[in-house]
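Sequence in, structure out.
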Amino acid sequence: MTINSVHLVGISGMDPEARYFESGTQKARFRLALNQGLDEQGKQKPATWVEIHAWGKTAEIITDQVSKGVKVAVSGYLREEVWTDRSTGEQRSKLLVVAQRVECFRATQQGGPPQSNQGLTQAPPAQTPAAQGWAHPAPQVGPAANGWGYGAASTGRQ
């Protein structure tokens, strides 16, 4: 048995790019910067960048809710893309994350309620971790819910 499950929290490094297909399906992609902490001298280490792809309803919501600079939590799975480089003829590949669920964290005003993005981004039930026997706790919303001084505005169904 193998498990292909990814959970990341980072900062969106770009506004999502959307593509629409003749079938009516939408695809969205954006890059997520993951903070690597401080080095021995106390300086910020370079961020790790991860490409995120999404399809269908998840892509629609990402296009509407995610923008550059927003803190985003992504749950999904790894996928390898393989192609042939046109200029060299060499086979190339990269790993990316296919998002099944996305939550945007919005800064709150001092003492005020978190801003809500009022969307939901979750794969069809047969593809969700909960449908595979994995349980997810209900999200905590509000400034005390996490250590960043942000309130979480959930975009996923529970």
